[in-house]
Amino acid sequence: MNLRPVAFRGYQRSWLTTDLIAGVTLAAVAIPETMGYTSIAETPIQTGLYTILLPTIVFALLGSSRLLVVGADSATAAIVAAGLAGLAVTGLDPYSPTWLAYTSVLALMCGGLLLIARLLKLGFIGDFLSASVLIGFLTGVGIQVLSGQIPDLLGVPKGSGNWFQQQWSWIQSAVHGEISWATFAFGFGTIAVIVGAKRFARRVPGAIIAVVLSIAIAAATDAGAHGVSLVGSVPSGLPKVGLPQGFSMAQFLPTLAIAISCFILIIAQSAATSRSFAMKHGDRVDVNRDILGLSGASIAAGLSGTFVVNGSPTKTEILDEQKGRTQLANLVMSGVVLLVLLFLTGLLTDMPHATLAGIVFLIGLSLVDISGLRRIASRRSSEAAIACATAVVVFAVGVEQGIVLAILLSIIELVRRQYKPSDFVVGQSAAGSPVYTSAVPGTQSRPGLVIFRYDADLFYANAARFTDDVEAIVSTAPDPVRWLVLDCSAIDDVDYTAGLALAGLIDYVHAKHAHFGIAAADPELLSTLKRYGVLDKFDEDRVFDTIQDAFAAYQSDPPATKDAPTR
Hints:
With 567 residues, the protein is an alpha/beta fold. It folds into 2 domains: 16-415, no CATH class; 421-562, 2-Layer Sandwich (Transcription Regulator spoIIAA), CATH 3.30.750. It contains 21 helices and 8 strands. Helix 1 (16-41) packs parallel to helix 4 (74-85).
């Protein structure tokens, strides 16, 4: 396995200045965001900074993507928190040392799963989360994340129970006048500053400005004495590197199940992000090499006492907007984080929790992709329904259950399309070009000729439907069918069950005193049909390279020879 860094190949000196500026700007956005993600993962605030220290450095050295930013992510943080909350372990309370040990073990498990995926070249696993399902999943995560910040924004206790019970809890608190208006002022002010910066000065890091202002105001007004919850003391220095302590092996399998959910999302989200930005800049991306980088990043996270990391679409977009060219920008970000950990954590003591809640609220809001759902609905309603169902399950039932549902619905939709694909009867224009007509009873290519196109592979689930459709076309054709030719240009494979069905169809065609042929089959498909004995059931001269050849052969075949098949 070649481990030489590839994200820096072809580096040009002219990129240095933009990478340095982009890295500092990215740090200004990523530092408050990752601290905010700790409120989702329910870990100490410094662990958010740890996610963009060693994990980012390791990915920069091992991954292939020039731009992908790796660090804390709202979706994986939500999976971690929801999963651990469901484990019945003594002392496993949010923010406790045992909780942190479990989050670190989860990161190590994800790293191991990603390494196995790299060794076995399983990058395709991420493809089982379709773009529409991923939009629905992230929308559900966004709703869960933003709604989870409302109690901290209002300064009221968080409710327990399911999602609906939690929302009812803060609504009741608000109705009964229990809102802390000082807390609300910090939360609302944070949101206003960030939104204002995005609207009027996009290059200004609104999140870091909101953090600095809130700390200054909280310190000047002694906000803690007025009921505003503050972050308090944040440990300085580098994270302790080592294996997490306090994990019970009795919980190995339940914890592994949580890790698998994170693993699937990491592959899907990171691969989609790195591909999109590579294509935008005309670069190639090695997904399996990125999986290796993500594996190393997760292992680094687990060993440095933090939670699972992921490729971040939002931070990668920021890096691209700032004209960052390579992973050097991410290394600069890690350098800035190192300085904060060593020298500036004392300044975070007076930061209100409502400030972090405001930052995370907007992150959650950005994940709710209503325009994306509308776009899907306008193009394919079935996929929109799946996306919406996934979103509802994620926030109403659970993130883990949502990702399982997302995968199942993606596979079901794939099978549904393969089970009932489009099929056509192929005709020919005066210029000799193919003309495709929906295969409904009563259609034919020419008098006595049917060229049937099926837009899917043939397998056990759709084999019977395929033969039924063909038989319906043959039996209802306006003229007695003399030739039936199967256009195989959209058929890459035929499984054994479908092979038997195809052999039976040939017998049916011959019983109708017609000839059977195939056109546009690739060599691999012909080899498969040969093994099944299907090619032995009709003449070799009725295997055509193209459908135009089939039309020409039928045209030149004297009518007297069309009366009965040779076999």
